[in-house]
Amino acid sequence: MARKKSKPLDAEFVMFDVVYTDGSRRSNRRVPTALLGGLDGDEPARDAIMEQDRAIAEKSGMPALEIASLTRSGKVVEKPGRKVG
């Protein structure tokens, strides 16, 4: 019987969904796992993504957008339930 490959215990990157102040959204932005955790939690991800945005803006010639919110990709956000009746 063939063996399945084991998955790594610690991933190198964490994926984030970013919403900008103009309402646009970018999904699956990669942030190194080593930056996250500790007392700051996911806040260092904001700095890493802002740095990525600056590099992209510099290359494209367009201004970088301001980040409104960050959430980890794949997190389920519960929507308020509909009232029945």
How would you summarize what this structure contains?
With 85 residues, the protein is an alpha+beta fold.
Reconstruct the topology from this structure.
Elements (H helix, E strand, L loop, with lengths): L12 E8 L4 E8 L10 H18 L6 E6 L13
Antiparallel strand pairs: 1-2, 1-3
Would you write up a description of this structure?
The protein has 85 residues and is α+β, with helices and mostly antiparallel strands. Helices cover 21% and strands 26% of the residues. It has one helix at 43-60, and strands at residues 13-20, 25-32, 67-72.
| Helical fraction | 10-25%
Write the element-wise H/E pattern from the N-terminal end onward: EEHE
Q: Could you say which overall geometry the principal axes of the C-alpha atoms support?
A: extended
Distance between the termini: 55 Å
Counted by DSSP, the helix tally is: 1
Largest sheet: 3 strands, antiparallel
Percent strand: 25-35%
SS-based class: alpha+beta
Side by side, the strands of the main sheet go 2-1-3
Mean pLDDT: 84
Using only CA atoms, what is the Rg?
17 Å
